[in-house]
Amino acid sequence: MAKSDFDAVVLGSGPNGLAAAIALQQKGLSVLLIEGKDEIGGGLRSAELTLPGFTHDICSAIHPLAAGSPFFSTLPLQDYGLEWIYPAVSAAHPFDDGTAAALFGTVADTAGGLGADAQAYERLMVPLVRDWPELAPQILGPLRFPAHPISLAHFGLLGLPAATTLARRFHTREARGLLAGMAAHSMQPLTSLTTAAVALVFLMTGNTKGWPLPRRGSSALAQALAGYFTALGGTIQTGTYITALSQLPSSRALLLDLSPRQLLQLGGHRWSSTYSRQLEKFRYGVGVYKIDWALAEQIPFAASACREAGTVHLGNTLEEIAAAEAYTTAGGHAEKPFVLLAQQSLFDDTRAPQGRHTGWAYCHVPNGSRKDMTEIIERQVERFAPGFRERILARHVMDTAQMEAYNPNYIGGDINGGNLDITQLFTRPALRSSPYRTSEKGIYLCSASTPPGGGVHGMCGFHAARRALEDIFRLS
Fold this sequence. Notes:
By secondary structure, this protein is of the alpha/beta class. About 30% of the residues lie in helices and about 15% in strands. The longest helix is centred in the first third of the chain and has 22 residues, at about 120-140.
């Protein structure tokens, strides 16, 4: 690749790489964004994986954190083709008796389906939803002195414990199950510290903006971000796979949307021994096994709320979900795993031919697992949607190795950029004055392996860019 001078180079065009590139370009710098694949997006890509006319999201599908991102929400992405679609039911959580709990756009509507726990849910969530505009920038960022210490302290007292501890506030199967499904997004045992915080964040986003999907597929979000970036004057170069940092064009700042393992591979001996040791000790979490379906009809869930939901959490009770997640973390493959399912075509008619539908789902598996979980996942869907299998026209599966091949940041199928437990929450990937700085001046890490971690919100890239702007360009 020919050498050329830029103020900054960003390697990797996932949501964090795109966010970093935009934040730098907004300051009038000359920025080059390099992507190894032929298409930008990282986890924001869509394709016809099964049959012609069926558009599937390869990784991320539903985007509550993107819609509520303190950075993405400031950008005019609607001018670049992004259209958010908000299902009436953000998430549904079915039980074996054909009923379901549901997350709606308000606290009151959600509480209304929780029976005897309605008031307990309102007492918990009303103050948090009120404080969400203050909390979001503080939660979705590095550890620093809080701008709103009272609201953050209140959230911290509730979110620091395990989800199973927070669940003691509730007595009904519905409220406890709904909470467990939210906490399972953490990809940790529900008895781990801070899993309550993950549950609360997803509940807050549901009770404020909701859980939307992009019309035409998740790639529409990546394309809108790229369109805005290039309109600012930024440059994108795809199909350029970098195997050593020496292959990159010269620049004053380099931002890497990479995992710590890739950082070690590309950096060679450039990193200090202390930094290298910390990167080597970085821990990755459980992986995922994913299925996409082309369907003759919509999924026939027994519970009506599930037939109106963009996202469905399949796992039954809190106890069953907690047991499955603990077993997976310990290295097992659950026979009744927690399955996260999305049904985008119910709300977006661009996803499938008329009258047909798509389905998207994954379950957690041990990191690096090659076990075929197709039958287990489909059995779990059938459990809550009798007749589901009869509607399958075609399927496409990805195990952990295929997930990593699709996106090298997904080490062992870990889509969270590393285990997000309390020991790696703010110090990911290394204990430093700033988690975004590497040991070499001018080189920064901007991936989900930095705070605040996984999720399509772009805040890892935004904060890394802010660090580079202050350090290198003396801009704030």
